[in-house]
Design brief:
Layout (H helix, E strand, L loop, with lengths): L1 H35 L1 H4 L22 H11 L4 E6 L2 E6 L2 H10 L28 H9 L5 H5 L2 H20 L6 H18 L5 H4 L3 H10 L3 H12 L1 H7 L6 H21 L6 H14 L6 H32 L1 H18 L6 H4 L3 H13 L6 E4 L4 E4 L2 E3 L4 E4 L1 H5 L18 H4 L20 H18 E5 L26 E5 L7
Parallel strand pairs: 2-6
Antiparallel strand pairs: 1-2, 3-6, 4-5, 7-8
The protein binds protoporphyrin IX containing FE.
Length: about 500
């Protein structure tokens, strides 16, 4: 009797389990069907999604920028539907639609989709925060990036660029192969550290400093950090689950210590530097005056993002520009001539940023580098309300949108022979042939890069002093620029190798 009862209970449980399983499978089936058909129903071009990853099957195997570029040439449509796991998202390939999203209708697209983990101490930074906090922050931080302020950085930039040349000279004399990415990261870390936070360091000469320890950690992109970045950009919910953060913990701690020691010093001694650090401390003081509160964590988050967003992008552009110039002697000679003419016209005076920004061919070289290698190959936004993309498609609020900047940069319709490095495209006479809204290395609209001019002037000083002193040549056995490997774990478009070139000294004495 007991056995019969036991059997009946088991079979009831088994039936219940089967029932639950059937329900789960049915739910999965219908849910998956709905997900899978999302873009087909809306008649939007797409490639069928993977059951788990959606369109993200390339993650950790291919750089996101490279994937965007491939998606652009594979599916030649103004926009393309993708899935971030099961979440539908849209890639926009059309410059006009991109312009509307970034600028004209930016009220709807104030925010980026990405976010860091809720427990990330630097998660509330200018790059990730949402409106209205973002607008307030941005207005308060803008003054630290005015032209007048950048001009005041001349002596720092000049000194650091001289040190960069000295470092190359020393490494050359010691017959070391120069790891371009690292040397430029040393240089930019010094400049940002000093210009933004008043923390002087000697990484340009020595390859090391407290601030450089932080940026070295940030450059370390193992699979775990790769996963962290992928989650931040494409599946923010996972960042909470795994506790992913924008900086590795060690870097956050290290950076926090540096920040707090400078803040303490300034609160005791005062400061008239008007740099980013002063702007940040003023935000806190102003908030106190109006009865509000901005805690140290928010300030540190802003400082951290300036380092993060600034050093890697600028160092990457410098690396690619140097590498391309080594392979394009004609372009290099033109740029060299332009810099020499400037130097001669100045006599005994130092090269100054006011002169550097007016160098036409240098602008062409930098722009062409940014076109071929935009460090952020795609621009992330999310719609706050339902939005009409065109007469055929209205997307619901909350759908992530990616403007495919790198895809547009490589479209032969806008940039003929896009794989070729041709600075001449950006000469004043030719630039009018470039269709509006097709060149987006710094994004566009109210959320465009706040550090554009700062990054640009760093690049100009470094290139000017290096080219005055060295002829750049390819090192035998190194890949051509188009064959260089791009970091597969990275969201940003950056090289994975050392990118070495040969530096041949032009004059017996170094020229400054
Ligand atoms: C050549 C160097 C640089 C490039 C190519 C670059 C590129 C970009 C791009 C594409 C964006 C996104 C814009 C958008 O979504 O429309 C961005 C945002 C940003 N960049 Fe840069 N950047 C560079 C240098 C810098 C520097 C030097 C700093 C700081 C010192 C900086 C700080 C930021 C910040 C804070 C944001 C977020 C702005 C916001 O959301 O309000 N960047 N950058």
């Amino acid at each position: 009797m007991v056995e019969v009862l036991q059997c009946a209970v088991y079979s009831m449980f088994a039936n219940l389990l089967l029932g639950v399983l059937a329900c789960v499978l049915a739910w999965l089936f219908f849910r998956w069907r709905k997900v899978k058909l999302y873009w087909a129903i809306r008649d939007v071009a797409h490639q069928p999604p993977h059951f788990i990853w959606g369109s993200l099957t390339f993650l950790q195997q291919k750089n996101v920028g490279l994937w965007m570029k491939e998606m652009y040439s594979r599916l030649e449509y103004p926009y393309v539907g993708i899935w971030l796991f099961w979440r539908p998202a849209l890639i926009v390939n059309c410059p006009e639609i991109g312009k509307r999203i970034l600028s004209k209708d930016s009220e709807v697209f104030r925010d980026r989709f990405l976010r860091s983990g809720k427990t990330d101490p630097i998660g509330h930074n200018l790059f990730t925060v949402k409106d209205p906090f973002w607008s307030t922050l941005r207005n308060q931080l803008n003054p630290a990036f005015t032209q007048a302020h950048l001009r005041s950085l001349h002596s720092l930039l000049f000194r650091k660029s001289k040190q960069l040349v000295q470092r190359i000279n020393e490494d050359n004399t010691a017959k070391k192969i120069i790891n371009l990415r690292m040397v430029y990261a040393d240089f930019v870390t010094d400049v940002i550290g000093t210009a933004a936070f008043g923390v002087s360091s000697d990484a340009t000469l020595t390859g090391d400093s407290p601030m450089r320890t932080v940026t070295k950690d940030l450059m370390n992109l193992g699979p775990w950090r790769g996963m962290a970045w992928s989650s931040i950009f494409f599946f923010p919910e996972l960042t909470d689950f795994f506790g992913f953060t924008m900086f590795p913990k060690r870097s956050t701690d290290h950076f926090t210590k540096i920040f707090q020691s400078v803040a303490k010093k300034r609160s005791v001694e005062g400061s008239d530097k008007k740099d980013l650090m002063d702007a940040l401390l003023k935000i806190q003081q102003d908030a106190k005056k109006t009865g509000g509160e901005i805690n140290d964590e928010v300030l540190i988050a802003q400082a951290a993002i300036f380092l993060q967003a600034g050093f890697n992008t600028t160092a990457t552009v410098l690396t690619f520009a140097t590498y391309e110039l080594a392979y394009h002697l004609e372009a290099q000679e033109k740029l060299y001539k332009e810099i020499v003419e400037l130097k001669q016209s100045l006599g005994e005076k130092d090269i100054h940023c006011d002169d550097l920004v007016n160098l036409t061919y240098m602008t062409c070289v930098i722009n062409e580098t940014l076109r071929k290698y935009p460090p952020m190959g795609f621009l992330d936004r999310v719609a706050a309300t339902d939005y009409k993309i065109d007469k055929n498609l209205t997307i619901p609020a909350g759908i992530p949108i990616y403007i495919n900047a790198i895809g547009i940069h490589y479209d032969p319709k806008y940039f003929p022979e896009p794989e070729k490095f041709k600075p001449e495209r950006f000469l004043p006479g030719n630039v009018r042939n470039i269709q509006p809204n097709t060149f987006l290395p710094f994004g566009d609209g109210p959320r465009r890069c706040i550090g554009q001019n700062f990054g640009d002037i760093n690049i100009r000083y470094a290139l000017a002093l290096i080219l005055l002193n060295y002829l750049l040549r390819p090192l035998p056995g190194t890949p051509k620029p188009n064959d260089c490997e791009i970091e597969k774990n990275a969201i940003f478009f950056m090289p994975s190798g050392m990118m070495p070139v040969e530096f041949v000294q032009r004059n017996k004495e170094l020229v400054f």
